[in-house]
User: Fold this.
Amino acid sequence: MEQLETSAPASTLTPHATSVVVWDVPSAVVPGERFRIRVGVKCADECRLVNHEFGIYDDRATQVAGGALSGQLWPGTTGLYVADVELEAPAGEGLFAWSVRIPSTPPGAGLPGAEPGAGIPHAESSAGFGVRVVSQPECLVTIEAVDEATQTPLSGARVVMHPYRAVTDERGVAMMRVAKGTYRLFVSQTRYVTFGLPVDVAADMTTRAELSVEPVPERN
Ligand SMILES: [Zn+2]
Assistant:
């Protein structure tokens, strides 16, 4: 049984403005790599956006992926609804201008469930982001992770130089083949403060990461 709306006919409604943001885009990916980005969409009137579809378009305006908002509100925001999307990097190197586009939704396009905002028309919006595809790894980077205080090796520490990642062995050493370039190195281990360092890789190199133990709250 359908419920009748008592508000103005849908056709006379002015579409709400929407805005799209994209984040968690990797700083670089290797050719053909699968990677994830996060898409957020907000209605200017803060409608709850559920099942709103969006498309991801490459530099030739070809749709390469799509998705729909789950209705999950991004924590700390009043109306930003998010979705994770998995994408595949282009096969060639370069910086590619991709975009996310949320099409306009006509009046009455809301799905059953009568969410606030369902059926209200929304204007289209889009946002661009860059996909940097780098050559295959050519430099060997060695990372030695140690406890800052005791200088003992830290095994099992997670090492990230996006898009590359590794885990240290029992000697506290991780080795990664990376493309030449500028990265931010992160080394993390349970109970330690994450170590971060900008690194400029031009050749094989070794870096030492000294991690300090996280402060433990004092007991009363
Ligand atoms: Zn709205």
